[in-house]
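Async update (no meeting this week)

Hi team, since we skipped the sync, here's where things stand on the single-chain job. The sequence we agreed to prioritize is pasted below, unchanged from the tracker. I ran it this morning and attached the output directly underneath so nobody has to dig for it. Comments welcome in thread, and please keep replies under the output.
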Amino acid sequence: MTKHLRIGLLGAGPWAAMTQAPALSGHPDVVLGGVWGRRSEAAAALADAHGTTAFTGEDGIDALFASNDAIAFAVPPDVQAPLAAQAAAAGCHLLLDKPVATTVAAARDVVNAVEEAKVASVVFFTLRFATDTARWIADQAAVGGWFTAHAQWLGALFSPGAESPFAASPWRREKGGLWDAGPHALSALLPVLGDVVELTAARGPSDTTHMVLRHASGASSTVTLGLGAPLNAAGVSLVLLGEQGKAELPDGWGSPVDSFRTAVNELMGVVRTGRPHPCDVRFGLRITEILAEASGRRPGRGADTATR
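Output:
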């Protein structure tokens, strides 16, 4: 099959090395058109591993945009947002990571740039592209009649003894589970229960946030998010309760490389047809709006929650 879409990769950290780079370089219809990284040595190593060109510095960003049809992002959200707006203005389609940004203004700037440039966009909410979970979400949305839902996304990145390449991520340590795990939970809840029309949020231990949501369908949900749970308390669950009984999100999300490759395929579909994707940058903006509202409604940290 002819390779017809050149996609550059912005980012050279652990997530880019684990997911985006192998998915793009192994895609039969894509040319990985270069890697840009804030650290030149990381960009060079990742580019060399996948047989492409390394770009560095401000000039490198412009050169990456100029030589590609689309850009995939694997950088912190508040680095991503202004560069995504810049890429859209340069005529590049966008394959963004979640969250799009951690401020509503920055996310809205990306939406405005996409709309003005008339480029395609997809945000990689993993659950929406992993085969089993994507099918489950679609099935539950089709069933309807849900009364309430309970979601828990607890990681142990910040706990003693935890081993994760993402534990040292400065933005995760600053923003916590609300911004890192929150997009996962909301990306699954909103297509099933409808948009959030009312929310309350409260802090828990470490970086934990509890949200109570009212949805457009009339259903309610509770969501617990954190990255600083003890190792034995970490885990993910999402349970729906309603007229049909109980439905639980399947365990395991499959290979992130396969899921990202699906996101690439769906971006290519948007480019080909012009039809917006359900997980486009506008949906990414809505997730940012909800998380920003939750962040503003949490009471301030007490002495027992000030330190992770």
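Quick observations from my side:
The chain has two domains: 5-127+256-279, 131-250+289-305.
The CA atoms of residues 94 and 155 lie 28 Å apart.
Reply here if anything looks off.
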